[in-house]
Amino acid sequence: MRRTAGILLGTFVASLPLAAATLQTPQQQPLTFKAGTDAVAMTVVVRKRNGKPVTDLKREDFQLIDNGQARPIVEFRSEPTPVRLALLADFSGSMDVAEKRPAARQVADQLVSWLTPGTDQIGLYAFDMNLHEVEPVGPAPGTVLEKLSNLKPYGSTSLYDAIAQTSKLISSDSPAHRAVVALTDGADNASRLTPEEVSAIASQIDVPVYIIIIVSPLDRAGKTSVNEATLDALVTGRLGDLARWTGGAIYTSTTPSMTSQAAQEIVTDLRHQYFMSFEPDVRPGWHPIEVRTRQKDLVVRARSGYIARSGPEPLQR
Predict the structure, then answer these.
(1) Which of 113, 116, 241, 248 is in Cβ range 3.0-4.6 Å of 209 for a Cys bridge?
(2) Which segments within the chain are labelled E, that is strand?
(3) pTM of model > 0.85
């Protein structure tokens, strides 16, 4: 894949919109833990250097470092299970130029093609200034593709806010094998949240965020020039950081083959996640997490940390 945002090797130091209901940001409580009773649950993806997924590791193959301190993994699972995707489509005004809307539909086609009908799940959310639920998460393929084709771009772009809201919405279910996949040109001119704030929200509730940058088909056909510097800045900059820190990744849809590969990688990642948990540090505040494999040549992706707070409240996801 030409551009996958900064994966660390062996370690990790997440007119239809107007007719749909506009969603309000849910009041998500911070993650809270009690010593000795609750555990931090997290998902981990492992690949070889060539991108091939590694699906046969055992609990003893992993090392988990919490704020510099090694912690035992108290629960571990690695069975493949169905995938649950929240497809987040950018339909702000900037997507209504240079045939970006059809390009976004092509990316969605590829994602849906890798899902198992009736077993995997997908929902469609769209955003401009606000987030809109176009189709709730349900058995794939649903009518996601048809509804995506009917969306009409409008308004300013609140990309970061939309990612945070969608992450919270999908976090209410099982923590494993779920993700937000955002289709966007990368522009944001109206969000209240910063990429750092959004990555912290998605990371602490363990929802990986995958971002696919939509490149105009006119650029791909050579009728205009792909702005390599702009794409590089998105992939290596704050938007790429947002994806990495949640345990996700960022891609650019510069060719159909690359788009297909990105879709396959995303679904494969989620289907073959490792699920593990550990007892947290009870000291209040942000705790960075590192997940390592004993095989040093493997690529590991996981969320970047969690927040612990003092008090009697139970763990919330």
Answers:
(1) 248
(2) 21-23, 40-47, 62-66, 69-70, 75-77, 84-90, 121-127, 131-139, 178-184, 209-213, 250-252, 274-278, 285-293, 299-302, 305-308
(3) no
